[in-house]
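Q: What would this chain look like folded?
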Amino acid sequence: MKLIIAIIQPPKLNAVREALEKTEVMRMTVCDAQGFSRQRGRTELYRGHEPSLDLLRKIVLEIVVNDDFLERTVETISRVARTGPDGTIGDGSVFVVPAEDTILISDGSHGPGAV
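A: My prediction, written as C-alpha cells:
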C-alpha cells in the first residue's frame, strides 16, 4: 500500500476527482493549504500598491491505494492537474510514501482489503 500526497491548483480539483473516479479510485481526503515552491508567490496591484503574497492557495489530496493502483493513480493526477500541454510552474507535486497498514474504524479490518 502507498500513500499518495498530491498538491494541486484549486481549479483542478473537480477534474482530478472525476478522473480518479473513472479509474476506480473512490476514497480520498481533500485539504485546503497554502504554500509556494519555485513560483515564489505572486504580486498583485491593490489600491495602487504591489504587496507581495508569499503564499498561494493549493489543494492537498491524500489517497491510500494498493500497489496495483499506484501507477494509474499517479498518472491520472499528473495528467489532469497539468495546465497546458507542457505544464507550468505551480501546477503542483505528487509524493508517494509507503503505508504500513490501513485500519477501518467501522469494522476493524486491516491491510489491503481495507483500502
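The mean pLDDT is 88.
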